[in-house]
Design a protein that fits this description.
single chain; 165 residues; mainly beta; 6-stranded mixed sheet; 4-stranded parallel sheet; 2 helices; disordered C terminus
Length: 165
């Protein structure tokens, strides 16, 4: 069963190029789910392909003391979207290093949703933008001693985000 096509009313799709996404939605509607086991390490580099529209949707579950590092170059000529939903168990660590490089009328975005489920989890997101980008860090309100850190730089405007519980 395919997920319903997104709308601009959904915050996470607000800046998406929905016209470019529509013809390829069937391929990308359901995110890939990956689990990194207790104490394990996962590291991946995602480079652009030759597709006009490139979408990667991944849900990560990092179990106790697991770690993941993702390196992303997002530069699709029409629409590129990297979407990560990450949940961090106790002591888990997540790092994302990404760059959006837009040309002409392209829209490239990196959308993240990080949930700090367990105590002592750490996340760090560094995204460089030369186009359009989205990022968000969220952690469970009832957890203590979790750390989230993010940095997104735009031409002529730098912004840094840090969140500590």
């Amino acid at each position: 069963m395919t997920a319903p096509f997104p709308t601009r009313k959904q915050e996470e799709w607000r800046y998406a190029d929905l016209d470019a996404l529509r013809p390829v939605w069937q391929q990308f509607a359901e995110p890939l789910t990956l689990t990194v086991g207790p104490g394990e390490t996962f590291e991946k580099m995602w480079l652009p392909g030759d597709e006009d529209v490139l979408v990667r949707r991944v849900q990560f579950a990092l179990e106790k003391d697991a770690s993941a590092r993702i390196f992303v170059l997002n530069s699709a000529p029409v629409y590129g979207r990297i979407e990560l939903e990450v949940s961090l168990a106790e002591g888990a660590q997540f790092e994302l290093f990404g760059a959006n490089i837009g040309t002409g009328l392209s829209t490239n975005e990196i959308v993240t949703n990080v949930k700090h489920i367990g105590a002592g989890g750490r996340s760090r997101q560094t995204i460089r933008l030369s186009g359009q980008g989205r990022g968000r860090a969220r952690r469970a309100a009832d957890r203590r001693r979790t750390v989230g850190q993010g940095d997104a730089a735009r031409p002529r405007r730098d912004r840094e985000l840090q969140a500590r519980a």
